[in-house]
Design goal:
The chain has about 375 residues and is of the alpha/beta class. It is built from 18 helices and ten strands. The chain starts with a strand and ends with a strand.
Length: about 375
């Protein structure tokens, strides 16, 4: 019996995600245990998840996952590198393989590129191009090309994240092996493909009040509350307009004076899009700025992002998932969702949950949701 981990967002879970879970069992056997480490109420794009984490966790269990854990918010709102490292730190303690979908589907190629990115030669070449004012993705491409590596692997979003997973596996020295599978369809498609829809396309459909029934394996989303960035924009602007200089200086991703530029534009522009557009430059990606602003809103400081999360939340499980937890708890600290913990990280979780409630599309939701949550037990029929 093997345990395969998946680091995911399921924003929302769709037919392609369900296919990945089925493929794991086709490749590794029906008795394979599957653990999903899922972003909670905020995702790596620097936005609120469109559906609450409890709904998405239940959808994962219905799709065949055995155990659903919450990726701590300080990892979920990180760069691809720290997102991957945080996830691997957790799953690497008890999983045998890490499965992820990529455009190439080649574990060997991704691992070779990861080794190159960790080499001293690459770091020296990267610094040269960064000093020329190139953005990090562009500088990385130039440095890899200079060293003769296949740069095509870092042009597609899932390949890029797959390489980061491989880097994290190498850096942590964990026993997990990468299990890359080919991801069909286009990650950025704005129109949903019948068999391989993108989460981006489904979010567009949801926000334009179009049905997604044909693209998801569950009816859980039909009546679930929708959360959008636009719905909470005024709350975010209120926070940005009242932050002190010192608070801006402590925001993650604000190095090289970027925090100061954000501070000035927050005190000058009338809406969030205008702030982000004014701060944007070729050196910094838009997703970095999105994460920076969301962290500012949530009160997440740079020191929190760089500190390993002290524990992991359990969102849901079936009987096989309960067995996995017995093993996992030998090496890691887990708490049920809703369980009070005597740790400053608990306070952060409560704050993030209360502020997520302000992104509800129809009307703001009441605070205190986090302490009311309970683990979902899914009994297979």
């Amino acid at each position: 019996m093997g345990i395969v981990g998946i680091i995911c967002e399921y924003n929302p879970l769709h037919l392609g995600h369900a296919k990945q879970i089925r493929m794991i069992r086709q490749l590794r056997g029906e008795d394979t245990r599957i653990v999903c480490l899922m972003s909670g109420n905020f995702v790596q794009r620097g936005e609120p998840a469109i559906f609450h984490k409890s709904v998405r966790a239940r959808a994962a269990l219905e799709a065949g996952a055995d155990l659903v854990l919450e990726l701590p918010v300080t990892y979920a709102l990180s760069s691809a590198e720290n997102f991957a490292l945080g996830g691997v730190r957790i799953l690497g303690q008890f999983c045998d393989e890490l499965c992820f979908g990529t455009e190439t589907g080649s574990s060997e190629s991704l691992m070779n590129t990861a080794k190159m990115l960790l080499s001293p030669e690459f770091k020296d070449a990267l610094r040269i191009y960064l000093d020329q004012g190139l953005s990090f993705p562009a500088a990385r491409q130039r440095a890899l090309a200079q060293l003769g590596n296949n740069t095509q692997l870092l042009t597609s979003p899932n390949d890029i994240l797959g390489v980061e997973y491989c880097k994290a596996i190498i850096e942590t020295g964990c026993r997990m092996k990468p299990l890359a599978i080919h991801r069909e369809g286009n990650y950025h498609d704005l129109e949903a493909d019948a068999e391989n829809p993108s989460a981006t396309a489904l979010r567009q459909r949801i926000m334009s009040i179009r049905p997604i029934d044909d693209y998801v394996p569950t009816d859980l989303f039909c009546h679930a509350a929708i959360h959008t960035l636009a719905a909470g924009e005024r709350a975010m602007l209120c926070r940005l307009r009242t932050m002190t200089d010192d608070e801006f200086a402590s925001v993650p991703y604000g190095s090289e004076g970027l925090w100061r530029k954000l501070m000035h534009e927050s005190r000058r522009q009338s809406d969030l899009e205008s702030i982000l557009t004014a701060v944007k430059s070729k050196r910094y990606t838009r997703t970095r700025l999105n994460r920076m602003v969301m962290c500012a809103f949530l009160g997440i400081k740079d020191s929190m992002i760089s500190t390993p999360a002290p524990y992991t939340r359990i969102l849901g499980f079936n009987d096989r998932g309960r067995e996995i937890l017995r093993t996992a708890r030998e090496n890691h600290l887990f708490y049920n969702v809703g369980q009070r913990v005597d740790d400053p990280f608990w306070d952060l979780e409560q704050r993030c949950a209360d502020l997520y409630a302000l992104f509800a599309l129809e009307h703001p939701e009441p605070p205190g949701d986090e302490s009311r949550q309970r683990v979902t037990y899914f009994k297979k029929s």
